[in-house]
Amino acid sequence: MRCLKQLRLAMAGHMQLQQGFTLQIAKDIINLRDGLEYVQLSGCSRFVSVTNVLSILDTPIPCLKTLDLHSIKYPARRYDIQLPLNKISDSPWGCIGLQVLRITISERGEERPDIASRQRLCRQIGLLTHLQELSIRDEFKKRGGFAPILGQGLEFMDGLKKLEILRISPDAQASYAETKWIKSHWPSLRVISGLRLP
After folding, report:
1. What is the DSSP letter of 92?
2. Pick from 117, 113, 102: nearest CA to 145
3. Rounded to an integer, what distance in angstroms lies between the CA atom of residue 102 and that of residue 9?
4. What's the mean pLDDT when you consider all of the chain?
């Protein structure tokens, strides 16, 4: 029997689906984990719950190389699955072989950045030592969005020696110390989008 290697689900946000569909997606991904290499859930926030996405991240899926939760075009981006930082667990993610991770985060209800939650996210990402592309969108732009900042989690991402592409949205400004850290710890980095270096 051949293994399913790719699962791509891109939807318009106004679509209506029957109840139970969201749970089935997560179960299918986990059941297919032995051969699954690529998962894209684009514009699916009405159909795929945050809990389902976190269960995918927490499950050991040995072959999974790409987890893409981004929509490239507007207006579909407003239907991206947003991972609340306070829901990210301390237990290491199971998808440790990821090479590409594209996620959207949110910190709604917070007046200022939740440093502990940002550090927890950075610790999780820092364990993905095969990661070659990292894209993080922060939909709560009021505070300037997520940026790799020393003291807010950047120091936990020193295991990303293979990282080649970094995309941050909205744009952020790196300090001299952060620029020095990035050059020292991410030797393979060749593309930076959204992070302004001095």
Report:
1. P
2. 113
3. 14
4. 78
H/E element holding 178?
helix 176-185
DSSP structure string for 122-137 = HHHHHT-TT--EEEEE
* DSSP code at position 52: H
Structure tokens at 33: 């984990």
Indicate the pTM of the whole model. 0.84
Whole-angstrom CA distances from 140 to 104, 143, 144 are 10, 7, 8
DSSP alpha helix (H) spans, 48-138: 50-58, 115-126
**pLDDT tens-place string over residues 54-95:** 877 888 888 889 988 886 655 556 677 888 888 888 889 988
Do residues 135 and 161 make contact, with C-beta atoms less than 8 angstroms apart?
A: no
Low-confidence ranges of the chain (pLDDT < 70): 1-34, 46-47, 71-78, 108-113, 140-145
Instruction: Count Cβ neighbours within 10 Å for each residue of 177-196 and write b for 16 or more, e otherwise.
Output: ebeebbeebbeebeeeebbe
For 153-162, what is each residue's pLDDT tens digit?
Answer: 899 999 999 9
40 DSSP assignment:
E
